[in-house]
Amino acid sequence: MKKLILMAAVMLASVGAYAQHAVGSFNLQPKIGMNVAMLTDTEKADPRIGLAVGVEGEYQVSDIFSISGGVLYSMQGNKYEVASNPLKSKVTNTVKLDYVNVPIMANVYVVKGLAVKLGIQPGFKVSSKLNTDVNTPIAKGNKDADLDKVKAFDFSIPVGISYEYANFQLDARYNFGVTNAFEVGKSKNSVFQLTLGYKFDL
After folding, report:
1. What's the longest Cα–Cα distance across the chain?
2. Residues 43, 103, 19, 166: what is their CA dihedral angle, to the nearest 10 degrees?
3. What is the reported pTM?
4. CA-based nearest residue to 201, from 24, 60, 56, 25
5. Could you write out the DSSP letters of every residue in 132-176?
6. Could you tell me the sign of the dihedral formed by the alpha carbons of 133, 135, 139, 141, in that order?
7. Rounded-to-integer distance, Cα 142 and Cα 131, Å
8. Residues 28-71: tens digit of each pLDDT
């Protein structure tokens, strides 16, 4: 019996060391990083590399569990080549879908500083543009045009992992798009996101 009690005490002590912050504490984390974004159901498309920037707050519920919520500006979409020929003429379109996303995450600390994450993420469109880049022997240019029939609301499921050291946190997530990005078709947002943040205890 004494051995069982000792083992249980050791296990509880080790679990208590998993979280970086005290139970009941709240911290605020400004963060910045990059997206590698795609739209599903599109052929011969390349990712759009964009900015992800914002702030998240985290409440430490227990030694191994916390809840976080945030507001992130997120550049999404994709790009694709629409013309190419032996004269090296090329026209590239970039679908630029920018959102304000609101991730709400459950975080489970599996070892000290290392957390796995799962949540929900409503998103609100702030800009939708089609950028056309022309590069031909006789003409060069770059212009943006408004992109119609983009839905104002987006919903995704983020899943990820993070590691915290000295209040710096490196966070990697994949956002699975649930809703269609456009009023027509079945394309959904698909985003890999990597950010670096710093936590301030409040």
Report:
1. 86
2. 80
3. 0.85
4. 25
5. EEEE-SS-EEEEEEE--SB-SEEEEEEEEEEEEETTEEEEEEEEE
6. positive
7. 7
8. 999 999 999 999 988 889 999 999 999 999 999 998 999 999 99
Amino acid at 114: L
* Stretch among 2-6, 11-15, 173-177, 184-188 having the lowest mean pLDDT: 11-15
Sign of the dihedral through C-alpha 195, 169, 154, 126: negative
Q: How far is residue 179 from each of residues 23, 70, 122, 138, 174, measured CA to CA in Å?
A: 36, 20, 10, 41, 15
User: How far is CA 196 from each of CA 30, 32, 201, rounded to the nearest angstrom?
Assistant: 9, 6, 17
Q: Residue 37 has which token pair?
A: 């974004």
Check residue 13 and report its DSSP letter: H
Q: Report the SS3 class of residue 85.
A: coil
Cβ-based burial of 154 (10 A; exposed 0-12, middle 13-18, buried ≥19)? buried
Strands (E), 7-152: 26-39, 45-60, 65-84, 90-101, 104-111, 114-135, 140-146
Tokens 């002590």 identify what position? 13
Could you tell me which of 156, 145, 148 has the C-alpha nearest to residue 183?
A: 148
Rg (CA), the chain: 22
CA angle 118, 119, 124 (to 5 degrees): 140
What secondary structure letter does DSSP report for 182?
B
